[in-house]
Amino acid sequence: MPDTWTYYNGQWMPRSQVRIELGDRGFYLGDAVFDLFRTFGGKPYRVREHMDRFFRSLKYVRIDPGLSPEEMTALGLECVRRNEPLRAEMGDWSIWYAATRGLGDWRMLDAKPTVIVQCAQTPFGSFARFYETGAHAVIVKTRNNTPETLEPKLKHTSRMHLVMADVEARDVDRDAWPVLLDREGNIAEGSGSNVFIVTDGVLRTPTDAGILQGVTRTAVLEMARQLGIRFVEEDIQPYDLYTADEAFFSTTPAFALPITKADNRMVGEGKPGKVTRQLLAAFSESVGVDVVGQALKYRTSRSSV
Amino acid sequence: MPDTWTYYNGQWMPRSQVRIELGDRGFYLGDAVFDLFRTFGGKPYRVREHMDRFFRSLKYVRIDPGLSPEEMTALGLECVRRNEPLRAEMGDWSIWYAATRGLGDWRMLDAKPTVIVQCAQTPFGSFARFYETGAHAVIVKTRNNTPETLEPKLKHTSRMHLVMADVEARDVDRDAWPVLLDREGNIAEGSGSNVFIVTDGVLRTPTDAGILQGVTRTAVLEMARQLGIRFVEEDIQPYDLYTADEAFFSTTPAFALPITKADNRMVGEGKPGKVTRQLLAAFSESVGVDVVGQALKYRTSRSSV
Amino acid sequence: MPDTWTYYNGQWMPRSQVRIELGDRGFYLGDAVFDLFRTFGGKPYRVREHMDRFFRSLKYVRIDPGLSPEEMTALGLECVRRNEPLRAEMGDWSIWYAATRGLGDWRMLDAKPTVIVQCAQTPFGSFARFYETGAHAVIVKTRNNTPETLEPKLKHTSRMHLVMADVEARDVDRDAWPVLLDREGNIAEGSGSNVFIVTDGVLRTPTDAGILQGVTRTAVLEMARQLGIRFVEEDIQPYDLYTADEAFFSTTPAFALPITKADNRMVGEGKPGKVTRQLLAAFSESVGVDVVGQALKYRTSRSSV
Amino acid sequence: MPDTWTYYNGQWMPRSQVRIELGDRGFYLGDAVFDLFRTFGGKPYRVREHMDRFFRSLKYVRIDPGLSPEEMTALGLECVRRNEPLRAEMGDWSIWYAATRGLGDWRMLDAKPTVIVQCAQTPFGSFARFYETGAHAVIVKTRNNTPETLEPKLKHTSRMHLVMADVEARDVDRDAWPVLLDREGNIAEGSGSNVFIVTDGVLRTPTDAGILQGVTRTAVLEMARQLGIRFVEEDIQPYDLYTADEAFFSTTPAFALPITKADNRMVGEGKPGKVTRQLLAAFSESVGVDVVGQALKYRTSRSSV
Amino acid sequence: MPDTWTYYNGQWMPRSQVRIELGDRGFYLGDAVFDLFRTFGGKPYRVREHMDRFFRSLKYVRIDPGLSPEEMTALGLECVRRNEPLRAEMGDWSIWYAATRGLGDWRMLDAKPTVIVQCAQTPFGSFARFYETGAHAVIVKTRNNTPETLEPKLKHTSRMHLVMADVEARDVDRDAWPVLLDREGNIAEGSGSNVFIVTDGVLRTPTDAGILQGVTRTAVLEMARQLGIRFVEEDIQPYDLYTADEAFFSTTPAFALPITKADNRMVGEGKPGKVTRQLLAAFSESVGVDVVGQALKYRTSRSSV
Amino acid sequence: MPDTWTYYNGQWMPRSQVRIELGDRGFYLGDAVFDLFRTFGGKPYRVREHMDRFFRSLKYVRIDPGLSPEEMTALGLECVRRNEPLRAEMGDWSIWYAATRGLGDWRMLDAKPTVIVQCAQTPFGSFARFYETGAHAVIVKTRNNTPETLEPKLKHTSRMHLVMADVEARDVDRDAWPVLLDREGNIAEGSGSNVFIVTDGVLRTPTDAGILQGVTRTAVLEMARQLGIRFVEEDIQPYDLYTADEAFFSTTPAFALPITKADNRMVGEGKPGKVTRQLLAAFSESVGVDVVGQALKYRTSRSSV
Description:
The structure is a homohexamer.
Chain A: E1 5-8, E2 11-14, E3 19-21, H1 25-28, E4 32-40, E5 43-44, H2 47-61, H3 69-90, E6 93-100, E7 114-121, H4 130-133, E8 135-143, H5 160-172, E9 177-181, E10 187-190, E11 194-199, E12 202-205, H6 215-227, E13 231-233, H7 238-242, E14 246-251, E15 255-262, E16 265-266, H8 274-287, H9 291-298
Parallel strand pairs in A: 8-9, 8-15, 12-13
Antiparallel strand pairs in A: 1-2, 1-7, 4-5, 4-6, 6-7, 9-10, 11-12, 11-14, 14-15, 15-16
């Protein structure tokens, strides 16, 4: 994998030279927030929305990155620009930017933050095949975070519970993606994705009160509005997913990934649904990239984020 | 601060040269478990109990460190031995050892783990004064993890909720330590400590079903048995802490730290309690170090873990 | 009671000859799902909606009845046709159809299902009087199922909790009907009915996320839309029922049954409400049967389902 | 399978002639309670304890079977006596006795109960192999009943949630047995079994507050006392099962079945544990039957309960 | 403070002469409900809405005040009329009316109620300054009531939990006002106030399912509709308050009080927001009183309710 | 009823002259704590235990009564002494003492407290008959307070939820006493009483973690120890009460009141149980008063607390 330009605490350097210190709270306490935007055909997509969410995360956890939203945005765009020569080989970028609370012991809340901006390859290899076959969604017993313990709207790096969800889904099907329920037993979200179903022509997705407020989730709803597809945001249970006509995950890298099986029940007719494909086509047109074709083309490579 | 010998993925090197890669799942996903034991007068304390707990954590999250308990123990002891020349200056060590799931994207569950063993200074500066004045325990609204979302008995690095608890406690009193409740409203634990109270001569502490199974917590109970102090493990509520005769935190670095105020209510007579002091004295004798005196002596220095 | 034609595992026979085997999982494990549609004046009502729900139940519990929806529908209609000669005596039918997982021990998940279709008399005797006096709704302490334990949208035969609710309601008033709350304390549903209230001219009913998705419930909402009555689906608490202007149960056999008392508080003016009566009149017109008059006429007879 | 003598509402008849009526509340509402005792070498085991629990269930649900405990006991013993000639072929009996609320519509709470007593073959085929290999326990997302909805101490036939647990466990491993958690995330019970673990030589099992009060569970604890094995009844979490030294299910038919894998983590050394084997040996001696040998001998036959 | 005319059990007397008996259930059991309306420029505001809510409270708790809504309304208006001479000095009235269950022991549910109507000064002193500086909202760990224990829509005098919330907020900031969460961790309400936020130009407030159904809350929403401000009623979490563009409390005495800080995070730009000021201006115009100016003018005086 | 000497804010006066002011926070906010001890034959019983609990309540809610425990105790004893001449007529006293936070608006947390000590007649009339017939315990849907909202160990006057429980129990049986469950569905306590059951000779009662820590509850357990009756404190569910051999309420006025019916299920043999009677006899002997005989003698009179 080529060595991309990466920003680390005020300096641009090759990614291979960036290293996190052992005493960084982001490492040993998971005390960091991050966000991620994608390029399509090299063009950054919805940077402002991602940046706003990043600064909401920062405010919530009270980390002051020492940079304004404008400065952070500029860094993200510069990252894209510096790495443009590598794009043809890599497909398209997922720009990951983060701030940890910095070096300090567990009582050191006012340390100097660590700020990172990197261009990672979009991980086509982890999802491209699902555009064709659909994914198997496995509802795991691991539950989503609650606002009482750790606000699920925060995009932080304390993600062990999502790792455990992933481990658990694989026990059912090595290729499955997990879906987490909230405390009441409603469908919350995937591990880094939002969940949509289609029932009787209506697009349905959980409200964004107890999940990450997905930028792509919003993009899907806006696209639905443009296409005249009715949608609701409401509590959804496993019953609704099992008995849906179609279903999909939305994610920043993939936009919409069909779900064709859920807990070993066939969803709809067991193949990517009509509404899902309609949304993918419209999205591809809007960003000027055949997102399915691109993913299938680059599927053999692997990214680290 | 002197540069201690540190083990990193098979090699011993100065701590300043160890750096975590950006793509390490331990960094960007909090996908790591760790543990920690202390030396007293340079002698490792309860290494086996800490090592057992570390391997229970590893089994739970399904990280295979590629080392047996005996090999990990040997690394811990070698760390102490290599750094012995620096001990006089630093006081005593907290040996922190961890395994991350290694380099890989979010679907890479079978990566090659990252293993680290380091000797950090025991953070006397963060607690020594409380031996004399007692700490202010603030019960925060941030709740402890639950087994449904993330098993509280695991010693992992996804600790953002504990950081938020710490942030919150400081809003009441800049010097306060947080206490977290479980979902039912019982007292669970501090952020890295266990909680004890004394009522009518009986030592009381929450059962270890929903908290970290503190090795020092067990040591306190064993010491109580030796001293003929009655104790119970049971559900405890804020009411019990407010109205206790005395209270303390147990931690690996400090053994027992008096609590003299809880949510601005004076605990007992507002000074370190008799049973707490008795336990500290007996413990000091058993490890051959005056733990209070040592902490007060080294309180000016600061460690990074 | 006359002996109706009944379908049992591929054969039509008099109901009195149908008998369930001891080893049928439907009997000793409650491992069965069912559904029910009514005739009005002999004409089947909303068969497709009931059949769809039945097949959603089957999919959820993973029982394959070995019959397509079209085949099951045909059986239901044939049941009506075969029993038409008895209708004058019986009033109108409630067609009950079910599938158990069949004969087998508790580990036998792939047994040959038992399929039943029967025409039972609509149980006018159990509700007719309430059209005139209104029912007493007693909110019981027995709670509704949750998706975590057993999906309340499923129409299964494991209904002991509803029996207990009924037992409990009778301790307050021998003639009362129970209302169950969900885990959060919201009104969920009756035992086989949905609950509606009217407040300031607005028809209000719980969302269908945690209850049986009543076909009649939907019919009531559609009727309200036609009549220009505003309605909302939302969380409702006992307070709302006690202080409503009027209230009613909706059920497949009765359409809408007035509630005039709730936990011994008079609802509205203590008699069937204006909106309730308006809905009943419009419904009667739409199905061509005076549903109130019919029920009062047949109230003396008793059905077994 | 031979046709055993069965008691049905006052009469003894061959099991094949017993059939439940369609209108029996036990069939279409799951409105029935039952219990089960075993013979060992033809000798009934702990009949009184099972009978007491049956009458507690009856009292709770308010079904009056019209028979005293003494009369029910006599029927159970008569069942054994009548079927003694068949025992050599079948191995040993599981005597299943039940009372439904009888024939009647959903409001008919004072119907004439249906009472059944039958001798079923002990289902050796479903568990015998686990004495040798150990079972795989899969902790499912389906939760156990709660006292609020349906008292888990009741032995009723509304068991669809247990069926769903079984379905779910098989998605992980076709041969797995499910373990259900309670609402708080503690281990509750299997589907018809209790769960035991051994940690550091101590036998641990959930308290019987939220589970079926297993007669065999009590027998295990009594046996442990006799053997000088320490035991505690307390809240246990998945962590404890994963990290136990050994584990087993207790059931009426099998006494104790080793668990050697839990959610794909190896339990202990992955083979039947020492304490488990000790308990099995002592139990075999006490009932005068080599329970393991008997089960392995009869494993090829299948029973319907 | 001047001695206002007060109604007590059928008589008008100076407030100083009214005294509650020791044996009044309203005193020693908190067994009373009340309500409160304000005058603006001496003119009663939304009396009917407040009176309706009072009678809903009475019905819920089953206290019959022995007076019709019309009679209670007349008493409220008479109170205003009798005290008109004192208004110039006092600013404007908050008319507080209540009914206790009367004199009787704890089993005496059918005692003769105690009925009170009093004119208290609007407590300008407790809130006037916040129109200028904004209030600090502190989210406390004390949770709001639930319908299971005590219906939060009831306006009763058993308010110790709100007192504790107030005590707790002061531990963070002596001048802070508390905000209570519901059981799920959503924002519920203040202690006697409702909470509003503004995000991207949309006014957002919790649904009124689990809170006091504020008459002023409704007035705010109606005012927003008139001004063309979009609004939603939905679940809101602390994250939303921290990251809002502006926020305010609504209360009967103050209409809308800006929130400029929440848990030490600056809300919006840290000063009263544009929408808040717009609503205040429009409300002032509608009631013919400059509510901000009036409060600032009378801020030095103190009322007892 | 004779006019007893009562202490009110520093003065002794006839009870009829004490009156609470309208603006007292104890009246309009339920912002007060209290406690209660009894005399037996004129001799105060366990005054210290009741006084300790009162001061724990005060500390929790942060009301400083301006009197030391010794001074409060002296007031209580003086109350008994002053009223001794009336005792022959009244039977025995329940000494009720309380502190409200005093006069002040809802933000006035540091007002001057109101302190009251009164001698009320022990309310024999409300319970005497149950010594003979046993009480009917009705488990209500109203749940007990939780530590999150309002600590159930506090003895405060915000008791509306207990009033609602009482109202609800009467809907089942005019003479019933309510039993409240905790949030998990365990039996918590009665409205002012603790609950005990006897199963197989073992006395069982809920732990005192989520209930009022009854002084009489402790007295019962101590008495049991003296009499050699085994007892456990543990979670108890309705099932346990329904199927118990005997049951009783403990209260300060009555010591132990038999329960002979629970939710219309006969408890044991439907008459006061053997262990209950044994405890009552032993208690009578220990206090030198035949508590049953005394209650029956004075049952016709009525007290106001």
